[in-house]
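[agent] plan:
  1. take the single chain provided in the ticket
  2. run structure prediction with default settings
  3. attach structure tokens to the ticket
  4. add a short note for the reviewer (M.T.)
[agent] executing step 1
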Amino acid sequence: MTTRRSASGRWIEDWDPENEALWERTGKHIARRNLLLSILSEHIGFSVWSMWSVLVLFMSPKIGLGFAPDEKFLLVVVPTLVGALLRLPYSYAVTRFGGRNWTVFASAALLLPTAAATYFVQRPGTPLWVFLLIGAATGLGGGNFASSMTNITAFYPQRRQGWALGLNAGGGNLGVAVVQLLGLLVISTVGDTHPAYVAGGYLPLIALVSLLAALKMDNVTVVRTEPGAQREAALTGHTWWISLLYIGTFGSFIGFGFAFGLVLQNQFGSTPLEAASFTFLGPLLGSVARPLGGTLADHFGGARVTLYSFAGMAAGISVLLVATYAHSFATFVAGFTALFVMSGTGNGSTYKMIPAVFARDAEVAVTSGQDARAAFARARRLTGAVIGIAGAVGALGGVAINLAFRSSYGTPGGGAPAFYGFLAFYALCAVLIWAVYLRGGRAAGALSVTSTQATSRVR
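[agent] step 2 finished; step 3 output follows
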């Protein structure tokens, strides 16, 4: 393994995490350092991306920003949509510019929308379109997820990717809970008329993370892909099956995370303090559950864990429906919290399916006489591309959830119509994963820790 320095940063050549001797000697230490900094960068990105889920709780006539409920839901839809659309180019950017280089840029780019939010959110009479533009710019933070995951996949051996991807994503997802905790802290200490404190608190953190990434992260040449990798992935059926599943898991997590506070305000008339007191809990537990989902998938298979996650999510929606008709605040919060935990678990297990699917395809190719090096190089190339595609498509699920809430809370039935729609979609995802990956002993999405176990632990 050789390292070279150039004007474009530090590049590690001949990186091979599957080489166990090299991994134990130096590889795991390098990977761990890059994973830690990747988590920090992604965490800040998620916080900025989901910032509007907190800022809308402050928006009231008291600070001269009295927007209607449908306008507030629109303010959380826009960053969700932009973040989803940016995930594909962000994933590609890592393969073009290097993980360290892109992390520095992607982190520093968050300074502008955060500074704009800090300034305008305290200016009475600011029109909605200004906040929509700023919200769209904060969507840059949503793109960080795809570039981070693509980069970290290249650093870890296949047997450790479930754990590494789960930890990376879980640490990033925690940004949703942390910004909501910050909102609660501001409201409970200085009141609900100082939203600029929430946004402004992230400016020094963004600068610090950008600097640490520049100084301590590495680029690896193996992350670079041949032109057309995303096109090749788009022609693979597994790309779209997994993307659909990720709509159900991550789309639910991010959609509910953005909307939870507004839902409590519209469903039960909660004050900003009451809403902020509960909104952080679900994203916090869901983020912690994500690496657990990846670890469970390492041991029991991604498909099986994902199927159980959808069953749990359906149960959570059922609790929400009961609470809606019974007008029970406590039951409603409990159902939402369970929904976050199960979606977080499903996030980790679904992402584990991506490298597992293509590792199995590589094994099949090798047993049929193809060159092993080329087969596994293709698996890594497609894994990185599919991570970007699935991350982008999955995040669009968050857009759909917030649009459903925006429509549902504009009708006398409240949130119930949206909940019935979510329940039907989870049932569809459960049928899909059973039919494609589990029925008849199919193993494609259910691989476990190592490739040598593929034939013995398929379900």
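[agent] step 4 note for reviewer: Confidence is low (pLDDT under 50) at residues 447-459.
[agent] ticket updated
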